[in-house]
Amino acid sequence: MTNHEVLPLLGQVADSVSQAIAHARPELAGADPLVRRSEHADFQSNAALALAKRARTRPTELADALIAAVAGDRGPITRVDMSGPGFLNITVPDQLIWNQLAARLASLRLGVGTPNEGQRTVIDYSAPNIAKEMHVGHLRTTIIGDSLARVLGFLGAEVIRQNHLGDWGTQFGMLIQYLDEHPEATWHHDELEPGTSAASALDDLYRTARALFDADPEFADRSRRRVVALQSGDHDTVTRWREIVAESERAFRDIYDRLGVLLTPDDSVGESFYNHLLADVVTELTEAGIAVGSEGALVIFSEEVTGPDGNPIPLMVRKRDGGYGYDTTDLATIRYRIHDLKSNRLLYVTDSRQALHFQLIFEAARRAGWLTDNVEAAHVPYGTVLGPDGRPFKTRAGGTVRLMDLLDDSVARARAVVHEKDPDLPAEELDQIAEQAGIGAVKYADLSNSRIKDYTFDVDRMVSFNGNTGVYLQYAHTRIRSILRKAGDPHVVIDPTIELQPAERALALQLDAYDTALTEVGETLEPHKLCGYLYDLARAFTSFYEACHVLNAEEPVRGNRLALCQLTARTLRHGLNLLGISAPDRM
Ligand code: ARG
To answer: Can you give the residue ranges of the Arginyl tRNA synthetase N-terminal domain (predicted)?
Structure first.
């Protein structure tokens, strides 16, 4: 086994059952040992049930053969029993469990390996649109993408973050023209009232400009000429466009700072960046016969997807007016990321409604020979954020929810629940904790819901100390930190000869499974699996703490229990950090 600092017990047991399978029935060698955690024993294997048919025998008979083979091996298994129709219930020795914990405690990485080493992974996330407000959907991509960047990076991948800002398009002609004709319009952060962002001021101005464009044909003409001026690099127009981009980015940065995401200005590689590459991309696709003319436009007809009318769905490569759009730019992103960034894993974190777009882009890239079998390209879709009425989350007036307001609201409610729990907290500390809890609550609510599903934004539930919430996990961490502080934060040495109590055992096995949980997130790209793991860990700790004395236990039991506390606190903190959530020491 490579890339494991400390091989999880689950993996050790699986290896052992694999060997038993190969030994008992050589014709089944290599079959999945189907080992998982179990409530009836430490682990359970369903291999006998799954493989009996192939072995032309009954499950119970195969199970007996496997039990005999395991017994002949000095592997990590102390006891195997058959249960039900042929399940194998597997128990591992206490000493081995303690040794696993000691090895994890001794490791800065908690014993977690780097299975994603050698993967150069581009993660395209956040990508709000310039001169528009960031909306709740951008909050999801930002939070999910950031957590994936952290997890994959920790697992050894070389992560390249790409913030594909919507900073190009004909709408800028209209906006720039309007601003020129209305010098009194305010949108620069120097002129705005505190609390208003340039992005929202520009969003308003854009709507006004749009209305004028529709009502006044002469303004519309002047706007179209502005688009041409922008595209041909006219100095004043480009300068104005740059100012708009900078002001919007400034407003986005306020949100990023508040959320504590990894994105930096260097990660901003917006649509405009690809502008100089588009003509070449189009030529390549045309010469290869992949892009073809259709009613004056240039399109790529899918060979895989047809529309409701039975005709192949087209990807728009060049519009009739000669312009390029979102599709063309994404053809350029994929070519650039594979050929220039030399990436072998490409992830696009966007709304699930863009699934077809990416399916078509990936198909075209495969046909063009850019996307080969050595490269994985995946759309990482997510569901819609719903309001209390079960419809897409909007303000009462039906507008976009301002993200800053939403974060302020969550922090204010977190402040109230934290204050209620501990009224003696000094104001300054309360403010700091409220900020960590409130932001953590929003992030955790987003991450803990299955990525692909819609979820309902419910602030009161998010900041609750009960249930699967960020606040609950942060609080669980502070409770353990407080136990450790009372014990004087000792350097603990585990005595592996001590017999494990059932609650200690359940906690220990959960701690050992951190590795497995992270690897699964790395493969499925579903952060809610890490949330679920951490929640189960916090609950296993609670059961342990209810069943076992820690501070007033006798040595060496006390030392071992403090070790369990330490490893739990570190694992919780580490896991929260991979979700982008801070773990305060007190709450
Ligand atoms: N700006 C787009 C939006 O707001 C998202 C861009 C996602 N990335 C991409 N390469 N298409 O929906």
So the answer is: 11-92
Q: Where are the beta strands (DSSP E) in 9-107?
A: 35-37, 43-45, 79-83, 87-91
Confidence category of residue 402, pLDDT binned at 50, 70, 90 = confident
Cβ neighbours of 388 (radius 10 Å): 10
pLDDT tens digits, 203-230: 999 999 999 999 999 999 999 999 999 9
**Which secondary structure element, helix H or strand E, spans residue 348, and what is its range?**
strand 345-351
Residue 64 in contact with residue 52, Cβ under 8 Å? no
Interior angle at CA 384, CA 328 and CA 390, nearest 5: 150
CB-facing half-sphere around the CA of 202: CA atoms within 13 A: 29
What's the complex ipTM? 0.99
Q: Tell me: the pLDDT tens digits for 426-438?
A: 999 999 999 999 9
Q: Which of 350, 351, 400 to mutate to test the pocket of ligand 1 (most atoms within 8 A of CB)?
A: 350
What is each CA distance from 284 to 296, 317, 367, 486, in whole angstroms?
A: 19, 12, 12, 68
| Centre of ligand 1 from the C-alpha of residue 327, in Å | 10
Nearest CA to ligand 1 atom 6: 127
Q: What is the pLDDT of residue 199?
A: 85
In terms of DSSP H, where are the helices of 217-287? Answer: 217-231, 235-259, 275-287
Residue 141 and residue 124: Cα distance in Å, rounded?
9
One-letter amino acid for residue 58 of the chain: R
**Ligand 1 mean position to 136 CA, how many Å?**
14
Mean pLDDT (the chain, rounded): 95
Cα–chain center distance at 383: 13
Half-sphere exposure of 148 (CA within 13 A, CB side): 28
Ligand 1 centre from 166 Cα, in Å? Answer: 7
CA distances to 160, 172, 212, 215, 335 from 220, rounded to whole Å, are 40, 12, 8, 8, 35
Residues in contact with ligand 1 (CB, 6 Å cut-off): 124, 127, 129, 164, 166, 330, 333, 348, 350
pLDDT band at 3 (very low <50, low <70, confident <90, very high): low
